[in-house]
Structure to design on (231 residues):
């Protein structure tokens, strides 16, 4: 049976997150740790199936970064869901670069969004154990959101959160076809509206252009949606 670690120094928040997990999946074993030292000692003893992690632990502002480094050193590939008060606009990219699977900003999500994100990661982690990653496509893109791996573009890693990976996968699966806003709503966890989808697509383009300034594979289809035009 899967064992989950909740690493959060604020005990009421830790109890809330652990309670949400237990209510959603009573069969899971949940361990709670409240500081870096006890968390790292536990990680040395046991390989967790998923870690929910705060960045700030006590007076250590970036203790969570050290914990992720420990996870990557001891148990590379362990899924990490970061839940932090740190601004998502700044820290989501940092956490993705450290191979965290997703990032939720405190006060910006409710129980339903946390549980949905948590279960998405848990299911993908379980599926990954018996799967192989997707090979690169003919146009140089390697993408498999099931594995939660950062996609690569011509051998270079693209830094994208899970929702953006799913939007990208949907566009690539229907290459050459217009993908409507309504179809893209199906892969967006929250904020199912056109403005939010446009922001995700803009973030995808920016991530590609950081590697390839000439990238132009995602076309706007006015009033309808978007189209992947390569391949």
């Amino acid at each position: 049976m899967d064992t989950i670690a909740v690493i959060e120094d604020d005990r009421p928040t830790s109890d809330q997150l652990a309670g949400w997990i237990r209510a959603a999946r009573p069969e899971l074993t949940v361990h709670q740790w409240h500081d870096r030292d006890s968390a790292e000692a536990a990680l040395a003893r046991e390989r967790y199936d998923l870690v929910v992690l705060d960045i700030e632990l006590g007076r250590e502002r970036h203790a969570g970064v050290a914990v992720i480094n420990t996870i990557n050193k001891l148990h590379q590939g362990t899924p990490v869901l970061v839940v932090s008060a740190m601004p998502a606009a700044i820290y989501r990219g940092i956490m993705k670069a450290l191979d965290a699977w997703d990032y939720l900003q405190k006060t910006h999500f409710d129980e339903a969004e946390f549980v949905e994100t948590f279960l998405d990661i848990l299911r993908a982690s379980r599926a990954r154990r018996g799967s192989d990653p997707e090979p690169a496509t003919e146009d140089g893109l390697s993408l498999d959101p099931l594995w939660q791996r950062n996609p690569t573009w011509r051998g270079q890693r693209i830094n994208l959160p899970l929702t953006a990976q799913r939007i990208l996968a949907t566009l690539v699966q229907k290459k050459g076809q217009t993908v409507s806003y309504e179809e893209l709503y199906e892969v967006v966890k929250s904020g199912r509206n056109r403005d939010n989808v446009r922001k995700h697509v803009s973030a995808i383009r920016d991530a590609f252009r950081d590697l390839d300034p000439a990238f132009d594979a995602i076309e706007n289809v006015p009033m309808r949606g978007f189209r992947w035009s390569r391949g």
Observations:
- Residues 3-128 form a domain with the Rossmann fold fold (CATH 3.40.50.2300).
- Residues 3 and 29 are 5 Å apart (CA to CA).
